[in-house]
Design brief:
The complex is a heterodimer of chains A (114) and B (112). Helices cover 0% and strands 52% of the residues of chain A. Chain A is mainly beta and 114 residues long. In chain B, 0% of the residues lie in helices and 54% in strands. Classes of the chains: A mainly beta (114), B mainly beta (112). Chains A and B meet through β5, β9 and β10 of A and β5 and β9 of B.
């Protein structure tokens, strides 16, 4: 049981390049989330998916798109990367039942945009 | 967006000391969560609280859901070097069905 996995672990892009960050979970969770973490800013929600087939904007969605490919996978796409998107990106998932708020995180993708 | 007021921002303590940190909110919460993040890793859930007044322990860690429902506390007893990291509080209020509101973290350093 791997939990939440993210690829790649590290990435360097040039301004204007595009890329997709991948996230998968094997816990049969319904909800999945994408956060970015910057020094002194804590965790900020980019997008989330309450269930397969649905996505909603979070606090900082501009410059990003997401796809909930199936119940397991939730990808984050940067269409035209900017230096302001240099950050650490975390994916998380949430189960249901009595633990309906407990988010489980992946190890992160460290992205640098030059 | 709304954020929680988490304090202190950082702590530097001696091994063996007890640690206390807290989070406060301007609105009523129905869930409080405490996470720890080690360098280069994702946050890991330590304790979840779902009821006002609830006191829950996880080893040397104890967290409480404040009775006003606007605050929560985390205590670490007899700290050890592996307690080093950033501790985050997070909570959910009635208006955010799927989203958590996060504190900015307490950075803990332990001097062996």
């Amino acid at each position: 049981n791997a939990g939440v996995t993210q690829t790649p672990k590290f990435q360097v892009l040039k301004t204007g390049q595009s890329m997709t960050l991948q996230c998968a979970q094997d816990m049969n969770h319904n909800s999945m989330y994408w956060y970015r973490q910057d020094p002194g800013m804590g965790l900020r929600l980019i997008y989330y998916s309450a269930s397969e087939g649905t996505t909603d904007k979070g606090e900082v969605p501009n410059g990003y798109n997401v796809s909930r490919l199936n119940k397991r996978e939730f990808s984050l796409r940067l269409e035209s990367a900017a230096p302001s998107q240099t950050s650490v990106y975390f994916c998380a998932s949430v189960g249901g039942g009595s633990r309906y708020n407990e988010q489980f995180f992946g190890p992160g993708t460290r992205l640098t945009v030059l | 967006g709304q954020q929680l007021n988490q304090s202190p921002q950082s702590m530097f303590i001696q091994e063996g000391e007890d640690v206390s940190m807290n989070c406060t909110s301007s609105s009523i919460f129905n869930t409080w969560l405490w996470y720890k993040q080690d360098p280069g890793e994702g946050p890991v859930l330590l304790i979840a609280l779902y009821k006002a007044g609830e006191l829950t322990s996880n080893g040397r860690l104890t967290a409480q859901f404040g009775i006003t429902r606007k605050d929560s506390f985390l205590n670490i007893s007899a700290s050890i070097p592996s307690d080093v990291g950033i501790y985050f509080c997070a909570g959910r209020n009635a208006g955010n069905n799927r989203k958590l509101i996060w504190g900015l973290g307490t950075s803990l350093a332990v001097n062996p």
